[in-house]
Amino acid sequence: MLQRIQPAARIEGLLSLPGDKSISHRYAMLAAIAEGQTRIHNYSTGADCASTLGCLRTLGVAVDRDITEVAINGRGLDGLLPPAETLDAGNSGSTIRMLSGILAAQRFESRIAGDDSLSRRPMQRIIQPLEAMGASIAARDGRFPPLEIHPARLHAIDYALPVSSAQVKTCVLFAGLFAEGVTVVREPARTRDHTEIALREFGADLDTRARVISLHGRPRLHALDVTVPGDLSSAAFFLVAALLLPGSHIVIEGVGLNPTRSELLDFLIAMGADLHVRNLALHAGEPVGDIEVRHSPIRGGVIEKDLTAALIDEIPVLAILGAASDQGLTVRDASELRIKETDRIATVADNLARMGVTVEVFPDGLRVPGRQKFRPAELDSFGDHRIAMAFAVAALAAPGESTIAGAEAAAVSFPEFFALLEGLRA
Ligand code: S3P
């Protein structure tokens, strides 16, 4: 799909967003192995979270869905059924990596696969700890999907993550649910902790301190009635659009503000953003609030070290803000970006160049000098949802029509994105 984007003078309005993708995946998977019926409200509308529900159905889980309302009849820790077909994770790294932790502990064979992009993403990072727990997994070339997961009985491990990855952390913790004893995961840098919060809410026995998580195996998980907060990573596109376009003013209600995600807001404020959070509340252990932002001049800055891990999904759209900032934006320690849905260092740089924006590329990041203007351009999502949405925002600031090829990729996390963006034009 070719999406045409006209320039916007400014954006204005009040909006609320579909449920957080990360939290939706975790609630669905834990609901499937809990006892009783879990009700999830504001479930993510993205294709990725639909892939998770599809996989759960293939594992014998009754899932009832009415758009954002999802009811899951949990089958208990030992109740999943052997799948009659290959589990389809679609484009979703979270689905394949996190669900594999559960699949590796089953008494049956399973096979899980995905689309072309997912089939190129590294799985060694989950295979290695799962095998250390006693799992038996075959992968294409030893590293890529599809994964063939053989029956196994897992034992607890003490595992230091070699990469900062919430997906890998979650995979090991989910596997640890099925192992006797205490599974310990040590993180090199703090990553999103939705898994730890959700595990506790579902009734697991978990201890977390100083980036060390200890989980007691074989808990009885109970069903929940939960509401997924709005997705802060989706909010990021609107926040940047408002900061880019003079006179903009928006309020986004009910957004997830977990501190492992909200460093985005601290970073924007540190760069000069006129941004306020109101009506803070806690929903099932997750902080939620409203974000108000007005256009403001942005200084620019550096994203490196632990901050890179905290902002990893927002870097594409922040690179765009960097071009319009006073001093520009430098991103380092971001080689993980090269193995996302696309090589996001390359796809950001390619589209920025199409818009006439100068960018310097490093193996582990990029530098976008400030005070640059965006030219209208023929852009490409390269099949990556965050690239499609980030460049739709950049296109608003260009003085003429731009097009984005493959814009349908946005539906992987945020099918409503283009309609909501259009609705904010003032
Ligand atoms: C996610 C973790 C991150 C992030 C992804 C969602 C999660 O991936 O990029 O969009 O829900 O745990 P990594 O674990 O590969 O860093």
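^ shikimate-3-phosphate complex. DSSP finds 13 helices and 23 strands in the chain. Residues 232-244 form the longest helix (13 residues).
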